[in-house]
């Protein structure tokens, strides 16, 4: 029986990577294949998140790997993207974990924290001994953070936080939450309502995180509602370097960059199983891959995977050069997730009825990608970001 070649053998993408970058990718691929793939279908079915894998991710250097110092690997942007690619090829939930831990929570502390805050949290987070979450989105919606209702008010020498957050990854498992709130204090600008970030140990009285149930997507991952009811913090809980919405947006762009790569991992996985099935499944006396319509589907899927990979690589090189713009990240996030979903749907048609079962990862990837499409900016938000870049007019 003929065996399908690897997708990357068709395009020789590896030739565009350095030896170090290929090393990171190979380690992430081995981790995904050895530690995630054997258990992910059952975990998805059982709504189970394997916390025991977190220290292993830390030992591999994947947590906060794009950051420098404090036990972080200091890897390049392309290396980080390749790790996201390989983890999401296994399951979006595990790339999401690495993004929440590294690109959101750790990046917020690394970018905006005091030296004391960095020393307190980052080394343990890099090892996977401590878990962080990033609490920005609120129950009424995530696309308009300027309208957040969570507030922080001064009380003596400290702060008191009240409010609610929703769809916060890892919150019920986290040791520390990066909580964004409006500061009701005239000393903080913006009419006394400036957005600031706070580090909230999750054992603080008044902090409650409740996992969201009933999910049909990201079932092997954890997302939560958070209630903040009179959460009392010391004065030094505030992130000193984050002022206004540029603070959380700086972290969101880090996570969006990882999605550019990660979604292409899910797309590649779907294409690989469809390609293999097209060669091994015979109908009307021959493999279905010998039919022109099937080959056209495979060719179109390959085209979008390789275009997405080249776009991700281009953005990674720009990021490493310090020239990556938010609009360019929006191009990547919008394209990668949109095309990954289309590829998952097309791959399912090649798999036939079997494609809706967990014998293949395609329906799981498609379900997960619906979440990826929504978080870190919906399609519509990224279209508006690009529309503003094109016209100079703000349609938000």
From TrEMBL:
<dbReference type="InterPro" id="IPR006091">
    <property type="entry name" value="Acyl-CoA_Oxase/DH_mid-dom"/>
</dbReference>
<dbReference type="GO" id="GO:0046949">
    <property type="term" value="P:fatty-acyl-CoA biosynthetic process"/>
</dbReference>
<comment type="similarity">
    <text>Belongs to the acyl-CoA dehydrogenase family.</text>
</comment>
<dbReference type="InterPro" id="IPR009100">
    <property type="entry name" value="AcylCoA_DH/oxidase_NM_dom_sf"/>
</dbReference>
<dbReference type="GO" id="GO:0050660">
    <property type="term" value="F:flavin adenine dinucleotide binding"/>
</dbReference>
<dbReference type="GO" id="GO:0000062">
    <property type="term" value="F:fatty-acyl-CoA binding"/>
</dbReference>
<dbReference type="InterPro" id="IPR037069">
    <property type="entry name" value="AcylCoA_DH/ox_N_sf"/>
</dbReference>
<dbReference type="GO" id="GO:0004361">
    <property type="term" value="F:glutaryl-CoA dehydrogenase activity"/>
</dbReference>
<feature type="domain" description="Acyl-CoA oxidase/dehydrogenase middle">
    <location>
        <begin position="133"/>
        <end position="231"/>
    </location>
</feature>
<feature type="domain" description="Acyl-CoA dehydrogenase/oxidase C-terminal">
    <location>
        <begin position="250"/>
        <end position="390"/>
    </location>
</feature>
<comment type="pathway">
    <text>Amino-acid metabolism; tryptophan metabolism.</text>
</comment>
<dbReference type="InterPro" id="IPR052033">
    <property type="entry name" value="Glutaryl-CoA_DH_mitochondrial"/>
</dbReference>
<comment type="pathway">
    <text>Amino-acid metabolism; lysine degradation.</text>
</comment>
<dbReference type="Pfam" id="PF02771">
    <property type="entry name" value="Acyl-CoA_dh_N"/>
</dbReference>
<dbReference type="InterPro" id="IPR036250">
    <property type="entry name" value="AcylCo_DH-like_C"/>
</dbReference>
<dbReference type="Pfam" id="PF00441">
    <property type="entry name" value="Acyl-CoA_dh_1"/>
</dbReference>
<dbReference type="InterPro" id="IPR013786">
    <property type="entry name" value="AcylCoA_DH/ox_N"/>
</dbReference>
<dbReference type="InterPro" id="IPR009075">
    <property type="entry name" value="AcylCo_DH/oxidase_C"/>
</dbReference>
<keyword id="KW-0285">Flavoprotein</keyword>
<keyword id="KW-0560">Oxidoreductase</keyword>
<dbReference type="InterPro" id="IPR006089">
    <property type="entry name" value="Acyl-CoA_DH_CS"/>
</dbReference>
<dbReference type="GO" id="GO:0033539">
    <property type="term" value="P:fatty acid beta-oxidation using acyl-CoA dehydrogenase"/>
</dbReference>
<keyword id="KW-0809">Transit peptide</keyword>
<keyword id="KW-0274">FAD</keyword>
<dbReference type="Pfam" id="PF02770">
    <property type="entry name" value="Acyl-CoA_dh_M"/>
</dbReference>
<protein>
    <recommendedName>
        <fullName>glutaryl-CoA dehydrogenase (ETF)</fullName>
        <ecNumber>1.3.8.6</ecNumber>
    </recommendedName>
</protein>
<dbReference type="InterPro" id="IPR046373">
    <property type="entry name" value="Acyl-CoA_Oxase/DH_mid-dom_sf"/>
</dbReference>
<feature type="domain" description="Acyl-CoA dehydrogenase/oxidase N-terminal">
    <location>
        <begin position="18"/>
        <end position="129"/>
    </location>
</feature>
